[in-house]
Design goal:
It is a single chain. By secondary structure, this protein is α/β, with parallel strands linked by helices. The protein folds into two domains: about 120 residues, Response regulator (Rossmann fold, 3-Layer(aba) Sandwich); about 100 residues, Arc Repressor Mutant, subunit A. It has eight helices and eleven strands. α2 packs parallel to α3, α4 packs parallel to α8 and α6 packs across α8. The longest helix has 24 residues. The chain starts with a strand and ends with a strand.
């Protein structure tokens, strides 16, 4: 069955171009032209992935992403016409899995979509077949249920936060650079801003560290990268 992708874009020409290219690649494409419509279509169609523009009428992409993330775990790729770092960071912080800045290469977009969908498929397979858990102190990751808890409380993680935590937990004590984490967790050889990793590390620390400002579990190894300690 073809993966269903929801495209949320108010630029009609770009919307039609994306829809045409996705269908040519074998995807099922559904569309919305504003943030409010995006919520309705997402709830009705239950897409496998959402391409979400930031600058939208009625409801911004940021607001739509925030609401969608509370309701579903679907991967979200945000599009922005702006180059300001703050827009990219905000998108990641509210639950987007990745972002692209306009104008972008259709080839790169398709590569990223494929990688995001593969990651989602791997997670679904893991959920169905595995019953392994990893415990590191009071941090517990249940791969079978695709859940994590800390100090006895279930963690509210975005899909990418869970993937990052699960990867580091299964490689406890090993140091990974930002580029390595992008490759291993995001599922493709990411070319661009490694701030994506930093944002997700910071938000994981908010959820698993007693004092996020002085992390002793998810630590930075200066000049090398990050590792998860016991």
């Amino acid at each position: 069955m073809a993966s269903k992708i929801l495209i949320v874009e108010d630029d009609r020409n770009l919307l039609d171009t994306l829809k045409y290219n996705l269908r040519r690649e074998g995807y099922e494409a559904v569309t919305a032209a504003d943030g409010a419509e995006a919520l309705d279509v997402a709830r009705r169609e239950k897409p496998d992935l959402i391409i979400l523009d930031i600058m939208l009428p009625k409801l911004s992409g940021f607001e739509a992403c925030r609401i969608l993330r509370k309701e579903m775990t679907v991967p979200i790729l945000m599009l922005t016409a702006k180059s300001e770092e703050v827009d990219k960071i905000v998108g990641l912080e509210i639950g987007a899995d990745d972002y692209m800045t306009k104008p972008f290469s259709m080839r790169e977009l398709l590569a990223r979509l494929g990688a995001m969908l593969r990651r989602a498929d791997m997670s679904a397979l893991q959920l169905a077949t595995e019953r392994k858990t990893v415990e590191i102190g009071d941090l517990k990751i249940d791969f079978g249920r695709h859940q994590a808890s800390c100090r006895g409380s279930r963690l509210d993680l975005t899909p990418k936060e869970y993937d990052l935590l699960a990867f580091l937990a299964t490689n406890k004590g090993l140091v990974f650079s930002r580029d390595q984490l992008l490759d291993k967790v995001w599922g493709y050889d990411y070319v661009g801003d490694t701030r994506t990793v930093d944002v997700h590390i910071r938000w994981l620390r908010q959820k698993i560290e007693s004092d996020p400002a002085k992390p002793n579990r998810l630590v930075t190894v200066r000049g090398a990268g990050y590792k998860l300690e016991g």
